[in-house]
């Protein structure tokens, strides 16, 4: 029976001055389990371990964490896909303040989401039933609306680490584009204006960490590229209309 | 309350694309602080007089370490250009922004850069 070494990031603000890594040796499960199941096993032995989880099937986005150096959802990451030399390192999402163990303070992440006004804006009188869209227009939202706001992408992004207050970050920018691409939303120009400063969008340098970690296989970098092109087009339109 | 933040760069995996991005920035700063000043100083020395020109040439031709220094400056500048062109191709959506093609374009950029470096080294040394 081989054993498995799990290195867990531990921090309890009431007793620890600094976070530290604690090693747990457990019997290697006989079948492949998810990282989240592994955490449950550890917690049976040490109840003080803290982490978030809810749906345990990859839809709620609450158990994003750094698994052997790569962000992902613990509940849908099989240990077989991450074990290296019989070891697994588990750390909280990088860049956000740690509340306790694997639990991080997501306020900065949500603040960026709030900033992009993640709701449909349309001042025209609503029709009797609903605002219709052609199937082709609806298709434009595929790959955008599926985001579960797990923050794996933004917290893997170096630009977000250094400027979490000024750079909107891949997750919220994906949502910004989700509304820019929605034919029912009429505030594209205002939305673009809000994003036109040097930080909100332009801190993205195409590092691609976001795309490489997204558990939903979404592509924030592509959305950001589309926003950059829209920003350019919008400037051209404004200049053509009002003069330089 | 002051909370700790987990940013241990040695423990966070970065894909090739990220390494290209960070080295692009480092090369850009290196060009600004080292390559440009050295080039300007060398050029002003070369242009000062025909005697200084000959002196520079003499020293340069007889010193392998001087050649290696200039070679590395040129290679770093070229690295910035290679990765910069890739960056601009992505900006113009000429390379699709999927992870796979971004990865492949990183590899191609590196291979072209290495081939070019080799050629440059052969020409200069
Ligand atoms: C004297 C010459 C040059 C200097 C001093 C220089 C310096 C820099 C610096 C400091 C950066 C900032 C890096 C960053 O913020 O990530 C940068 C970015 C950039 N450079 Fe250069 N550079 C030079 C020439 C070039 C050339 C010839 C190209 C042509 C391909 C180029 C393409 C780029 C691109 C595309 C970026 C943007 C990268 C990004 O947004 O991440 N540069 N450069
Ligand atoms: S884009 Fe992907 S990684 Fe980012 S928050 Fe949404 S689901 Fe998570
Ligand atoms: S592509 Fe942009 S948003 Fe994604 S990780 Fe890189 S800098 Fe961040
Ligand atoms: S517990 Fe809901 S996404 Fe993992």
Give structural attributes.
heterodimer, A: 244 residues, alpha+beta, 5-stranded mixed beta sheet, two-stranded antiparallel ribbon, 8 helices, B: 125 residues, mainly alpha, 3 helical TM bundles of succinate and fumarate reductases, 4 helices, 80% helix, elongated, binds protoporphyrin IX containing FE, binds iron/sulfur cluster, binds FE2/S2 (inorganic) cluster
Broad structural category of chain B: mainly alpha
The CATH architecture of chain B would be Up-down Bundle
Estimate the strand proportion of chain A.
5-15%
Task: Show the largest interface.
Answer: A-B, 37 and 27 residues
Number of strands of chain A: 7
Order of helices and strands of chain A, N to C? EEHEEEEEHHHHHHH
How many beta-strand segments of chain B?
0
Class derived from helix and strand content of chain A: alpha+beta
Rg of chain A, Å, rounded: 21 Å
What would you call the shape of chain A?
elongated
Q: Which outline of chain B best applies?
A: elongated
H-E order of chain B: HHHH
Percentage of residues assigned to helices of chain A: 25-40%
N-to-C terminal Cα separation of chain A, in Å?
73 Å
For the report, how would you describe the main beta sheet of chain A? 5 strands, mixed
Spatial strand sequence of the major β-sheet of chain A = 2-1-5-3-4
Question: What ranges of chain B have pLDDT less than 50 throughout 5 or more consecutive residues?
Answer: none
Q: What percentage of residues of chain B falls in helices of 4 or more residues?
A: over 70%
Mean pLDDT of chain A: 95
Instruction: Calculate the terminal CA-CA distance of chain B, rounded to whole Å.
Output: 59 Å
* Domain count of chain B: 1
Produce a short descriptive summary.
By secondary structure, chain A is α+β, with helices and mostly antiparallel strands. Helices cover 32% and strands 14% of the residues of chain A.
